Structure formats: C-alpha cells, structure tokens
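User: My collaborator sent over this chain with a note saying "see what the structure looks like." That's all I know about it. Can you take a look?
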Amino acid sequence: MQMLLNFELLPLDGGQEIRTRSYADVASGVHIAIDQNRGEIGILPGEELTISLTEISPETEWAEFAIDLCDARWMECSRLVLRLEARCDGAQSLIHPALRIYEEGRFFDCFASEKLTLAKERSSKRVVFDLSPKDFAQAKALSLFLFFECVDEKLYISNLSISGLA
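Assistant: Without extra context I'll predict from the sequence alone. Here is the result:
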C-alpha cells in the first residue's frame, strides 16, 4: 500500500519578530537555534519566511531552522522530498538540509548529499532523502533541519514543503 504525506510551511504573516542567541520556538513544532552566544538568529514577519543571521562570531559552528514531523507515519516513508523556493541577500549562501532521527537518549543526522546554494534571485531547490526501514528501526521521532552557513545575512524562503512516500 502506498501512502503519501505532505507538510507545507504556512506563511508567518502578522507574526512577531523573534530573535535569540540560543533557541526559540517559532510555532508549534518549529524552532530556530544558534550556537550559544556566538551570534543571533531571528525570524522577521512578512510574506516570505525571513531568517536573519547577525553578529556571527568566527567560532560559530551552527545555526538552524527545524520542523518536527510529528506524525509517526513519516517514519514509514522510504523517500522524503524537500522542496523550497528561496533566495539570500548576499552573493550566495549555503543551506545543508538534514533529517534528524531521534532514538532513545540520542539522535543522529542524515544529511542531504549536497548543500543547497542560494543566490540573490529566487530559485527552486529539491532534495530527496532515500531511506530504508533500518533507518527508523529504533526511531522515536523525526525532524527536518536546515543548517545555515554561519555568516551575517538574511535568507528568504517563499515556499517550503516536504512530501513522503511509503
């Protein structure tokens, strides 16, 4: 039996500006975070999801935007497809998508084979995660993570969706 799951990030219009030097919830099951006190990450309200990275230290190791895939059926999928339309305010920026698989007392990241390169002009990007049942044998939960290049910049995401096929 084939099953198709979909998740689409809804616009955050009318939302509050959120800034943190560590971790902040953006919405239910959605958060932003940055290496503790080594910069600031923020969400700015508007038509596009605007992620702002500022005061980035040379020692900053990571900055992230994450979405919990709460429905247990995501862990029955053999393929997950991330689609996004995005741009950046600099010459280019890199995003490294990953699936975070949580097990009892630990987690591991399954990174996409390639980083996504953003430019000033909006472009469509697609990442496919091919998975096997052994990836989820001990899994308790699953999240999608977007890890950002740690430089001062703004990223604009106008569309983000995840589809799963079991």
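A starting point for your reply to your collaborator: DSSP finds no helices and 14 strands in the chain.
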